[in-house]
Design goal:
With about 270 residues, this protein is of the alpha+beta class. About 45% of the residues lie in helices and about 20% in strands. β6 and β7 form a beta hairpin. It is elongated.
Length: about 270
């Protein structure tokens, strides 16, 4: 073996746990755990998954994962972290950081847009109240009706505006139910609208359904397209591909493909 395998094997021995126990806690298949300890890298999937497995395995054993991942990168010829990735699905930290910054900027824009929309509703309600009160002494029949029926004319417009605001808030806060069911063995990483991993980089077997989860939105990455995605109980259309792929489920339950570079990694 070598530095990576020896470190993890010795740490597991100290904790007196077997590979099945590690699998139950991390979701990593025992054959992959054994391959890591034997440093049989050809038995593992792409480098991206191998690094993810090493990191998760080390964290479970309370071992610092960074030196082991760096050693793996060095052995696989990945070079320094700032260099270009060697696989289509791998990303450097700088690209992940940039994607995170872009996401935070989008979230900030959405928050401001929501606040401005609510402010607009309040302003419209105030204007309607003010205009209704000022027309009470008019001579036309329509104006007199609006001015005299203080319980209906003046109250109707604000009430309608209030209902509109309530509907908007309810729509924004809608919860989307998500379930995933592999049709073959597949690696999966799923995060909810708050960025929390609900499937934390686990290798799932065929028929191993995960969920239901409830959140405003989701982002997911899969090792291949062998997975059925159910949104609010209905099967969503997802790419059928032997290659890594990613999807996003928005607040309306719509499913969109995520390009490489914006998919979650669960590292």
């Amino acid at each position: 073996m070598g530095v990576i395998g020896d470190t993890l094997s010795e740490a597991r021995t100290r904790r007196a746990v077997d590979l099945e126990e590690v699998h139950a806690a991390t979701g990593i298949r025992p054959r992959y755990l054994e391959a890591i300890e034997q440093e049989d890298w050809d038995a593992l999937p792409e480098e991206f998954y191998a690094r993810s497995f090493i990191r998760k395995y080390a964290r479970y054993l309370d071992v610092d994962p960074d030196p082991l991942v760096d050693e793996y990168r060095r052995r696989q010829g990945g070079g320094e972290r700032g260099e270009a990735p060697t696989t289509p699905f791998a990303r450097t930290r700088s690209r992940r950081a940039e994607a995170l910054r872009r996401r935070r900027r989008r979230q900030s824009v959405y928050a401001w847009a929501g606040a401005l929309g609510l402010l607009a509703v309040i302003v419209v309600a105030i204007v309607l109240l003010s205009s209704g009160g000022g027309e009470g002494g008019g001579t036309s029949g329509g104006k007199n009706a609006a001015g005299n029926a203080t319980g209906t004319g003046n109250g109707a417009a604000p009430k309608k505006g209030s209902q509109g605001a309530g509907k908007s808030t309810k729509k924004t806060a809608r919860s989307v139910k998500l379930e995933i069911e592999p049709t073959a063995e597949v690696w999966a990483c799923v995060v909810d609208g708050k960025g929390k991993a609900v499937v934390d980089g686990a290798t799932l077997a065929a028929g191993e359904r995960m969920g239901p989860f409830h959140s405003r939105s989701y982002k997911a990455a899969f090792g291949n397209g062998s997975v059925k995605v159910l949104v609010d109980g209905k099967t969503a259309k997802t790419p059928s591909t032997p290659n890594p792929m990613g999807i996003e489920v928005d607040a309306h339950g719509k499913v969109h493909e995520l390009p490489e570079g914006t998919r979650p990694s669960c590292e």
